[in-house]
User: Which sequence fits this backbone?
């Protein structure tokens, strides 16, 4: 297996891991137990991974982190929107 395939599989697994959390928050309209600071810092870190991927021209890093960034920002937005 080459590094591209390994990168895409690793990225896909990491990306998929966020989907249940996003779906749960969306369905329950409850993000009370999540840390806004943690997800905000995480989102910025993932954005930097996207930038890094662009700089080193690594498609697995760019694609997977771009999707993770969208999911993480969705969590941040729902946290702000649904918090009491």
Assistant:
């Amino acid at each position: 297996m080459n590094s591209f395939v390994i990168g895409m599989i690793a990225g896909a697994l990491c990306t998929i891991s966020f989907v249940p959390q996003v779906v749960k928050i969306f369905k329950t309209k409850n993000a009370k137990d999540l840390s806004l600071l943690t997800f905000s810092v995480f989102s910025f870190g993932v954005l930097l991974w996207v930038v890094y991927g662009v700089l080193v021209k690594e498609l697995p890093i760019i694609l997977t982190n771009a999707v993770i960034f969208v999911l993480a920002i969705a969590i941040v937005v729902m946290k702000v929107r649904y918090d009491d």
